[in-house]
Structure formats: structure tokens, C-alpha cells
Amino acid sequence: MVFNMCFPKTGGNALTRTTSEERKKNLEIEKMIRKDKKQQARQVKILLLGAGESGKSTILKQMRIIYSEGFRLDERKEVRQVIFSNMIVAFKIIAEEMRELGLEYENAKSPDYEKVISSAADIGPDDIVGTNTRYMTTSNTTTPISIDSLLEIIFPATKMFCVLGYRSERKKWVHCFEGVHCLMFVAALSGYDQCLVEDKTANQMQEALLLFESIMSLTWFKSSSIILFLNKTDLFKEKISEKPVSDYFPDYTGAANDYKAASEYFANKFRSLNRTEDREIYVHFTNATDTNLLKLTMQSVQDTIIQSNLTTLIL
């Protein structure tokens, strides 16, 4: 039995046309890849890092106020619940401390108010309305957060990351930021006499020093510019006369109420942890709640970042 099979004629022109179109698409894709690589190479990446309770979140909020349009009315309304929650928590702590110390209220009605506050339920994370802004409660998250709203704010082609989390989680994400151009590290000067939220036996300042030392020893950040914010200077000034630094750091030999000597003492402690000879640590004393002061500080930071990455920016 014989089958007659017919096959369509394949013209050479059609095959050539298909190959040409595929080559054109490949060239377009390669061009896009090269363009993206060039843009990424010119993009300055900034990592904001620090120990717990150092003021990182406040600094981010201030940057939004300084460099963008600030917070919308609906965002400000949504954060009221968090503010009320923080106030209740603070009142509860004060009331508990007064009971332990055996202190009495000056106002006769205060015990009645205490009962009302004590009966108030704590507001948990599920009760907080989510927005694009990160609102802090008493707990921390452990996931790196890309602050996309700050793109192009400090200067063009900038991407900033803020990392918040428990110290046990840091090793999981720190390598993700290899090669960042600038590392901003925040430490609270006022934490020299305070313990960590997650570890009541650990000192906040000692923890900040340990974290900073571990960061300085990582190969991933050897070429990064280092900017140190020694934050909460206002609280530090108020504390040092009543709680001498030498009580917590015996090697401090300055006067108890000498703010300049005490602040430089801690600045030098951080500087001494730098293991790279040709890398400078730029130190700024900040109060994150003072918008004008932080604005002046950030102008200086901009100059530092631009000078340190001038070659990258002009390519």
C-alpha cells in the first residue's frame, strides 16, 4: 500500500525572516540588561542599621518630613491608635514602678485613674492599621524593609534600606547588603545605663558596640562609607549628672557632668573598632526628634556620601 503525503513548501525567506526577528529580540533584551546594569552600578545604596531602641525608626520618619511631603492627614489619623497604646504602656510602667518604690500620688484622684489605665487592654499588632509608613510598637520585626518612599530623596539614584530586628536574626540578612555604598549606624548615647528590650541582662550601649564591631569585621562592608549617628543627645545630657557614665563604664575618667568629654568617650570607643586603616568613621551627634538639627546633619551626610562615591555618581 502506498501513501501519498504532501508537505508544505518552506520558503527560505520565511526562515530567514524568523531568524532575523529572534536576533532582533535578543539584541533588545541584551540592551535592556546592559542598561539596567549601568543604572544599578550608578545607584547609591544606603543601609541604616543599629541596635534596638536607638532611634532608627524616628530618623526615617524625620527624613520623610525633611525630604518629601511628610505624612498625609489620613496617615496621621491612623497612627493615633499607636500613640494611645504607647501612652497606656508608659502609664502602666510608671504605676508599677511607683508601687514597687512605695511612692504616693500627689493628686488624690490619681489612684482612680490608675485603675482605669490598668484595666485597659494592650493594643497588639493585629489592632494596628497598616500603612506605607512603619509605625513602631513595643516589638520589633525581623525582616529587612526597603523604604521605597525615600528613593530619590537624599539625592538622585539613591536607595535606602532600614533593617530592624532582634540580634539573633541579624546573621540571616546581613549578607544581603554586600557592597552598599554607605552604612549609617545609629546608637543611642542615652542607652549607656539601660538594658535591651529582648534581654534584660544586656546593656544597650555594650550591645551597640558589639554589633558595630561585628559589622566592621565583615568583608561585605570593607569598601562602604561608615557614618555613625550617636543619637538621643538630649536625654544623654539630662542623665549624666545623675547617673555617672563611670558607674557603667569604669574606664571613663572624665567629669560626671561633662557632656563633651562623655560623648567623645563613646565616639572614640566606636572609632577604635574600625579594623580598616584607610576607612574613616564619620561621627555625628544627633537628636532624632529635633527636625532642624537632623536636617543640618543630613546635609553634612549628603556631602560625605557624594564625596565618597563621586566616581560612581559621575559615570
Automatic annotation (TrEMBL):
Q: Which SMART domains does the record associate with it?
A: G_alpha
PROSITE patterns, A to Z: G_ALPHA (PS51882)
The answer to keyword Nucleotide-binding applying to this record is yes
Q: Name one Pfam family in it.
A: G-alpha
Q: Spell out the InterPro entries in the cross-references.
A: Gprotein_alpha_su, GproteinA_insert, P-loop_NTPase
Binding-site residues, GTP: E53, S54, G55, K56, S57, T58, N231, K232, T233, D234, A288
> Known Gene3D superfamilies for this protein?
GI Alpha 1, domain 2-like, P-loop containing nucleotide triphosphate hydrolases
**Gene Ontology BP annotations:** cytoskeleton organization; G protein-coupled receptor signaling pathway; pheromone-dependent signal transduction involved in conjugation with cellular fusion
Q: What is this protein called?
A: Uncharacterized protein
Q: Which organism is it from?
A: Cladonia borealis
